[in-house]
Write a structure and sequence with these properties.
This protein is mainly β. It contains one helix and 20 strands.
Length: about 230
């Protein structure tokens, strides 16, 4: 069974969350044949007031057969919480980084605004530089990236978040009506020295406040996957 490009695995509060995002029942091969769970390009995030707990793993395995490298394959996924992510079974952790802007930003109406990142939220063996406009890719490879930005209050109108490599848009996401957040994600082959950043535009007819990571879930994350 394959789960690909999952975008519905976010947890927003402890009162409204599933125990597991994916639950696999692994039977003996002699009884049902070889079973394989493949999870690719999915994002497992904690939003709002949710507090991670080791008793609620994103992916759970039950049944008489133990999980191993032959029946579980994962690639290009983003797991925010170390307590809830699965074991990687020898596939290895690739370098990753998450950055944000800690304080709020005022967005003018109908204007493209580069997000001035100033905070490193998390990092694993990332040897590139951190710039106000984004982060520098440390080595050639294939990278998965995800950006999420939250507004301090809902407002009717179009909002668009763009992820850019060296100033060129490679992924975007939009929100309409009174949505209070917007997300964009993708996968790109990148070179050492490339800069990945993000910009946002809102067309609500007035200025709008982009929430900083100190008060809401707003971030840019990049992870090398190959």
């Amino acid at each position: 069974m394959t789960f690909a490009s999952c975008e519905n695995s976010n947890r927003t509060s402890n009162a409204q969350c599933s125990t597991n995002s994916i639950r696999a029942i692994l039977e003996q091969v002699a009884n049902v044949g070889q079973q394989v769970l493949s999870v690719e390009g999915c994002s497992f995030k904690s939003l709002g007031s949710y507090v991670p707990d080791v008793s609620r793993p994103y992916i759970a395995f039950t049944g008489p057969l133990a999980v191993n490298k032959d029946n579980f394959y994962e690639r290009a996924n983003i797991y925010e919480d170390v307590f809830e992510r699965p074991a990687f079974l020898g596939q290895g952790n690739m370098t990753w980084v998450q950055v944000s802007k800690a304080s709020n930003t005022t967005l003018a109406n109908a204007t493209d605004t580069a997000i001035p990142f100033d905070t490193v939220d998390g990092v694993l063996t990332w040897f590139g530089d951190f710039l106000g406009s984004g982060v520098v890719i440390p080595e050639n490879g294939t990278y998965a990236f995800s950006a999420h930005q939250t507004f301090t209050s809902p407002a009717a109108g179009h909002k668009r978040l763009k992820v850019q490599i060296n100033g060129v848009t490679v992924a975007s996401g939009s929100a309409e009506s009174c949505d209070d957040s917007v997300t964009a994600s993708g996968i790109q082959q990148l070179k050492q020295g490339d800069v990945i950043g993000a910009s946002i535009r809102q067309e609500t007819g007035a200025s709008l406040t982009l929430a900083g990571s100190a008060v809401a879930t707003s971030y840019l994350m990049a992870k090398r996957i190959a």
